[in-house]
Backbone:
């Protein structure tokens, strides 16, 4: 792994002395290392090693896509959604960006003793609505209740199975110099809304999570176009982290035009004083797509036809140099490296 | 608000000023120090160094409050956090700063109660909500944050709160700048002076630098156009051989600053010597809580004694904070010291020189 870190020594160090910190769950560099250096060490196999959003399981008769995700979010109800909506659409989106039609979900609940039934019902209703909207069926489930204090309200795990759309083949290997990068709408809405919704946050702004399923958009794109090379949903770690995953260990780079990035004024205004960068904020209804340059405009037209996706745009392209890196052309005409999320995003002091 | 900010990122205006800088830049090499970490971030984030001539070197100074907080302070915070019924409240960046052996963030995994605040008033609120607990606020920062912390102490005093105190490591800027100059190591041609600090202090705190040390100072805002205009103003002062203090950030910084904020600051704090990480003890560069408010001084309340602290072997944060070396000169940089696992303070704060180099490196 080209991270400029002495992984082996570092990790041995971490294994012996350290504990899991919040950093291991933020989707950035440390999460990547946990996955690669610990999980893959024990579970590694050809399907898992690809580290896509879902695993592709091929047999003679069909191609199945399989994924799982756990949802822990504070607060459970936030502007634009709740943990239930997130738990269905998040897993559906992981299947969708891999080129699949989502079919079935499992769902496991870990609930803290004392949790209100009314709140649980509200969450279940959100899940039902999302399942109906996307056409996915929740076919198996499990509930465990833990003693008060041993969980923060409620956690949900959903696993999803989908079938790969016929003829679809997505992967890094298809990316070529000149391909365009598209995002289907505003960046950072979910992350900003969640931070604001947390208790005691002093700034009040009208921020809404973008939490929504995107499978209908990806399905339409894949049925109309051959030039879709790779898609991924920029959740934890944000857009910057996914772009870096696209180029990691590859013989190409990506150049992003800062001026083309769709970011709401309220999100920018929220981030400015805190020193946050919207490119590292989580999104829950977005996908980044690498597409053949000849089909980029057509793809954008298709995305624009879906309500709520009007701000989708071509934000960059695949370039020859520097290899394995993401370059941001800044608003003032200069440029800099855009790195993966490293460390925890913490508000700065002054 | 954003349209307002956009004006300071306007591409045409940027090109106009960048052209002027190239036209008027003298042949000699120039070294300008941006004292404030906020400037360091903007310079890297927008790629400002790449727009100006190579002969102008921008170096980062000791203006990141987290970076200059001494290790001993971190160790004390961690020790306090391990006492029963103590809640540590702090600005976000501080939790990651490595002390001699560990950090607040790592200890949080071991069960200590550390809460991140956006303002010291959050800490007061936590104290009110937890009357049976002792709430300690980690008071760091410069003239910018000290007045609000002073307000909190005064409020706690007025309301006779018994469970709130501040572990103060507040620092003031001018004496640190003087110490840098007295060390004689850097050879500066100009200071890009901190905008936020000057909002409180006014513009005259830098007069002695221009007069005694003959180094031009320009107080700067934080947007790309602010910084570029500041660089142009410094070039012009250098070309004209004039050493004085100018104010680029006129939309926020008034000549006399904010007297009311200074008044409350001086009501609660008094000048003290202060230990700056990397710079050592600088006389008169700190703010300690006055005797009158000592019930709200964590050091008094918990009878804290000093213990020498250990820097990570090989860390050159001190040289970096003094502007003598760059992060790439450090053997630890990006190898075993990175934002996930910082060894030195400059890698911790998003405003720290090493963290900024790491994140936005060329």
Residues:
């Amino acid at each position: 792994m080209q991270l400029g870190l002495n992984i082996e020594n570092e990790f041995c160090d971490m294994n012996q002395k350290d504990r899991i910190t919040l950093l291991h769950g933020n989707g950035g560099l440390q999460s990547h290392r946990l996955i690669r250096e610990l999980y893959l060490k024990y579970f590694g196999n050809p399907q898992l090693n690809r580290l896509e959003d879902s695993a592709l399981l091929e047999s003679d008769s069909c191609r199945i896509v399989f994924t799982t995700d756990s949802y822990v979010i504070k607060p459970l109800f936030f502007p634009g959604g709740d943990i239930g909506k997130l738990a269905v659409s998040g897993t559906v989106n992981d299947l969708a960006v891999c080129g699949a039609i989502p079919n079935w979900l499992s769902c496991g609940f870990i609930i803290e003793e004392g949790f209100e039934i009314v709140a649980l019902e509200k969450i279940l209703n959100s899940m039902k609505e999302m399942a109906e909207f996307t056409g996915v069926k929740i076919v198996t489930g499990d509930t465990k209740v833990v003693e008060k204090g041993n969980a923060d309200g409620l956690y949900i795990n959903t696993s999803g199975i989908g079938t790969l759309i016929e003829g679809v083949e997505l992967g890094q290997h298809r990316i070529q110099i000149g391909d365009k990068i598209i995002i289907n709408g505003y960046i950072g809405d979910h992350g900003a809304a969640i931070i604001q919704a947390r208790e005691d946050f002093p700034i009040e702004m009208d921020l809404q999570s973008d939490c929504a399923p995107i499978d209908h958009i990806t399905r339409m794109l894949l049925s109309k176009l051959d030039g879709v090379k790779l898609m991924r949903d920029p959740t934890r770690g944000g857009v910057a982290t996914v772009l870096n995953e696209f180029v990691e260990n590859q013989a190409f780079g990506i150049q992003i035009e800062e001026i083309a990035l769709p970011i709401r004024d309220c999100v920018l205004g929220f981030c400015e004083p805190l020193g946050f960068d919207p490119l590292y904020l989580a999104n829950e209804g977005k996908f980044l797509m690498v597409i053949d340059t000849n089909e980029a405009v057509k793809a954008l037209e298709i995305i624009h036809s879906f309500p709520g996706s009007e701000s989708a745009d071509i934000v960059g392209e695949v370039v020859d140099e520097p290899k394995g890196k993401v370059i941001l052309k800044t608003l003032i005409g200069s440029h800099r490296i855009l790195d993966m999320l490293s460390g925890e995003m913490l508000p700065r002091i002054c | 608000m954003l349209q307002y900010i956009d004006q300071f990122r306007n591409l045409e205006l940027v090109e106009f000023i960048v052209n002027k800088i190239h036209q008027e830049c003298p042949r000699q090499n120039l070294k300008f120090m941006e004292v404030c970490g906020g400037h360091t971030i903007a310079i890297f984030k927008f790629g400002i160094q790449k727009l100006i001539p190579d002969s102008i070197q921008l170096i980062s100074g000791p203006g990141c409050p987290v970076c200059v907080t001494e290790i001993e302070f971190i160790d004390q915070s961690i020790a306090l956090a391990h006492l029963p019924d103590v809640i540590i409240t702090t600005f976000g960046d501080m939790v990651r700063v490595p002390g001699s052996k560990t950090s607040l963030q790592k200890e949080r995994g071991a069960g200590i109660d550390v809460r991140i605040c956006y303002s010291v008033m959050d800490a007061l609120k936590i104290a009110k909500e937890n009357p049976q607990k002792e709430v300690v606020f980690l008071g760091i920062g410069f003239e910018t944050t000290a007045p609000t912390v002073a307000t909190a102490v005064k409020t706690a005093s007025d309301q006779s709160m018994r469970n709130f105190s501040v572990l103060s490591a507040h620092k003031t800027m001018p004496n640190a700048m003087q110490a840098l100059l007295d060390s004689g190591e850097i050879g500066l041609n100009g200071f890009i002076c901190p905008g936020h600090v000057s909002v409180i202090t006014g513009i005259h705190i830098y007069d002695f630098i221009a007069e005694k040390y003959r180094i031009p100072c320009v107080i700067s805002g934080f947007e790309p156009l602010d910084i570029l205009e500041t660089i142009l103003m410094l070039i012009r002062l250098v070309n004209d051989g004039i050493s004085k203090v100018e104010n680029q950030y006129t939309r926020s910084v008034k000549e006399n600053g904010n007297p009311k904020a200074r008044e409350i600051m001086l009501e609660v704090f008094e000048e003290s010597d202060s230990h700056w990480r990397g710079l050592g003890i600088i006389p008169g560069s700190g703010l300690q809580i006055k005797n009158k408010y000592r019930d709200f001084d964590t050091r008094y309340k918990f009878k804290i004694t000093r213990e020498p602290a250990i820097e990570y072997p090989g860390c050159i944060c001190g040289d970096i904070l003094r502007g003598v070396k760059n992060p790439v000169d450090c053997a630890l940089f990006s190898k075993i010291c990175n934002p996930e696992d910082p060894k030195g303070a400059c890698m911790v704060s998003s405003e720290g020189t090493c963290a900024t180099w790491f994140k936005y490196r060329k």
Summary: Residues 35-311 of chain B form a domain with the Rossmann fold fold (CATH 3.40.50.11740).
